[in-house]
Amino acid sequence: MNAKIAEREVSDQDRANWIRLIEDHEKIARQCSELVNLSRESNTQSAFASRKLIELAVTVADHLGVEDEVIDRTVVAMEARCSADTIAMMEEDLDILRSDWKAFIGHWLPTISPDDWAAFGIQAESMLDRLSLQVKLETELLYDHALQDGVVRTGGLVLH
After folding, report:
1. Cβ within 8 Å of residue 113, ≥6 positions away
2. Which residues 6+ apart lie within 8 Å of 108 measured at CB?
3. Whole-number Å distance between alpha carbons of 116 and 139
4. Rounded Cα gap, residues 70 and 58, in angstroms
């Protein structure tokens, strides 16, 4: 382990934020997968899918509140290995995804009509795949950042 990393103080809040974000990412990915699988079933599942979509929307909203607290530090960590243009493109992609997510949620909530089930399935698969890919990317970036801050050791061990 780099001596500089070992010397860096890591607060309990840093650890809590990192753990919370990673847990959120895992939960969001799981919820996305469940919804995609559900959207491939019959339209009799539309009411259940509506409830699952509401749960996902709440998870994402809660997550964004926590994520915004550490996003600037993550960008700083990325600057060492990413160009300013790459970071700007990633931020733009995230803004587009957030906008598309709001439109998706606005269209399909509060309830998904059985008559619109096929359209929901197509849109849900596209949106939820994008959301899953985003949280995977963020997890990788946060993991790298956490390594630099000494919150974790290589292999994922959280330092307490």
Report:
1. 46
2. 50, 53, 120, 123, 124
3. 33
4. 20
Pick the most confident of 6-15, 17-26, 142-151: 17-26
pTM exceeding the 0.70 threshold for the entire prediction = yes
Whether the CB-CB separation of 77 and 141 falls below 8 Å is answered with yes
Q: Decide if 6 contacts 73 (C-beta within 8 A).
A: no
pLDDT in tens, 60-100: 999 888 776 666 666 666 676 677 888 788 889 989 999 99
Number of other residues whose CB lies within 10 A of the CB of residue 42? 8
Angle at which helices 46-79 and 117-149 cross, to 10°: 30
